[in-house]
């Protein structure tokens, strides 16, 4: 998840431990000996949320390990109000961003993106 640095600092400011999930074979997993105690309250922290897929996946991991998701904190909320994760959500900034499915192009776009999409 891109929220590692933000999550670590949020945990430090709250005086609580910091754990994280990471990708393994394309899906998120809890590794490195991290454990979640039964009933432990967890705040999921992310840098940017657009569709909420990875956040939901993280919440599922927390719950599968007996934890309770207290809420989701993010720096940038790009959901346009379309995502309801069923817990309180907090952001520093909300941005209205138009998104397109693969193969769709914004009206007036000439098709020359200058390279491949995505970050490396």
What is the percent of helical residues?
Answer: 10-25%
Q: Report the sheet with the most strands, covering strand number, pairing sense and barrel closure.
A: 3 strands, parallel
Main sheet: strand order: 3-4-5
Distance between the termini: 14 Å
Q: Rounded to an integer, what's the Rg over CA atoms? A: 16 Å
DSSP strand count: 5
- CATH architecture title: 3-Layer(aba) Sandwich
Summarize model confidence as the mean pLDDT.
88
Relative strand content: 25-35%
CATH class annotation:
Alpha Beta
What descriptive keywords fit this protein?
2 helices; 120 residues; Rossmann fold; three-stranded parallel sheet; alpha/beta
Can you walk through the features of this model?
With 120 residues, this protein is an alpha/beta fold. It has a single domain, classed as Rossmann fold. Helices cover 19% and strands 28% of the residues. The chain has two helices and five strands, in the order H-E-E-E-H-E-E. It has a three-stranded parallel beta sheet. Strands 1-2 form a two-stranded antiparallel ribbon. It starts with a helix and ends in a 26-residue tail after the last strand. The model has no long low-confidence stretch (mean pLDDT 88).
